[in-house]
Amino acid sequence: MKIVMLGTGYVGLVTGACFSEFGYDVICVDKDKEKINNLESGILPIYEPGLEVLVKKNYKNGKLKFSNSIEKSISDADAIFIAVGTPERRGDGHADLTYVYAVAKEIAPILKKYCVVITKSTVPVGTSLEISNIIKKHNRNASFDVVSNPEFLREGSAIEDFMRPNRVIIGCKNEKSKKIMENIYQPLNLIQTPILFTDLKSAELIKYASNAFLAMKISFINQMADLCESLNTDIHFISRGMGLDRRIGNKFLHPGPGYGGSCFPKDTIALSKIASDNNVDLTIINNVISYNNNRKKSLIKKINHILGNRIKDMSVAVLGLSFKPGTDDMRESPSLDLIPSLVENVKEIKVYDPIAMDEASKYIKDVYFADNIEDCIENVDVTIILTEWSEFRTLSAKYLSKFMKGNIVFDFRNALNPENFINKNITLHQIGRGPFN
């Protein structure tokens, strides 16, 4: 089985590396020559736990290769995965399919034998059919089938998600392509992974529906946290009590500053646009989008409400810049909303993230990038936790007071243990509970 992965971004590189770990011959193709040269030298364009080891291992044993040439790579491929970007299109919120359709047009005249062309990118309903039409238009003799196989990889745990997925969704239209896809995912049969075969449109919509539902769940628990603050009760009791109901489940019921990253923001908007184009009003999702945008912007209001006019003379430390732990991804991170607001309101800002410092420096300006936690919180009046990295979770009042000049901590991920702040000289403010001191 020879697999070609078109695109070496997050999805393409992770998927390609994992398929090579299954024992398949995989070629990851990208037009960016510098990126390919770096990959061949063991330098990855993204951070993902375990990925570097997987890439180097399978590149060394010859199962994973990298190339700039689509033509040379796909001549004898059994399966071609399209894993290029589908960013939000400027001006209207729809998914930008420019790269997807460009790839379809490029591979069409090169197809010499039967293969399956698989959309791994997140694409709107009807995209797979359009890919098929493009290929047929540019090569009437091409022998192929288009399959939809959406990805469900969480940044920070993508390797585990691929190797031990909750499910695999495959949209196809005949037994021939179905059989090939069954063979590709045969290694997952050992762990009895559910594989759901659907039509093309359903597979495309499942991805959007899944992400929108999880985004809705996040927004719901954040709104409940707002209510808990007004009622002087504890959101952790609420989320735990809800999560014990198996119909609800305990995942994505952790309050925070709102969802971010590469998927939820653009996918909820894209789904809303798809619905609108089909005269369906997704009121719930539209409200989720609006609420989440306001949620991230409201953090500075919460800080101002508690600190008042004192804030202008304060120095502030921000711990955590990426949108979640386990990644250096800054897309739609709450830090991109909060820190610029802080810059306008406080005397000094120091920031630190275990992984995302280089990536964050492309977007965040007028701050001091600290070398470590201690350097970041040294002599500051206020410490803010924005990402729940493991090394931040054990911070206590005793530890913080050794370095901080002030005594106020905002924990916007509820990562800290409040018991470590009771009857201490540091005041801990969390979401939907507290304060604790």
DSSP helix fraction = 40-55%
- The CATH C-level name of the largest domain is Alpha Beta
Determine the mean pLDDT: 95
Low-confidence stretches: none
CATH H-tier superfamily of the largest domain = NAD(P)-binding Rossmann-like Domain
What's the overall geometry?
elongated
Got a strand count? Answer: 14
Brief summary:
By secondary structure, the chain is of the alpha/beta class.
Question: What topology emerges from the helices and strands here?
Answer:
Elements: E1 2-6, H1 10-21, E2 25-29, H2 33-40, H3 51-60, E3 64-67, H4 70-74, E4 79-82, H5 98-107, E5 115-119, H6 127-138, E6 144-148, H7 158-163, E7 168-171, H8 175-184, E8 195-198, H9 200-231, H10 235-243, H11 264-277, H12 283-297, H13 299-307, E9 315-319, H14 335-345, E10 348-352, H15 357-360, E11 368-369, H16 373-377, E12 382-385, H17 390-393, H18 397-403, E13 408-411, E14 427-430
Parallel strand pairs: 1-2, 1-4, 2-3, 4-5, 5-6, 7-8, 9-10, 9-12, 10-11, 12-13, 13-14
Helix pairs in contact: 1-3, 5-6, 9-11, 9-12, 11-12
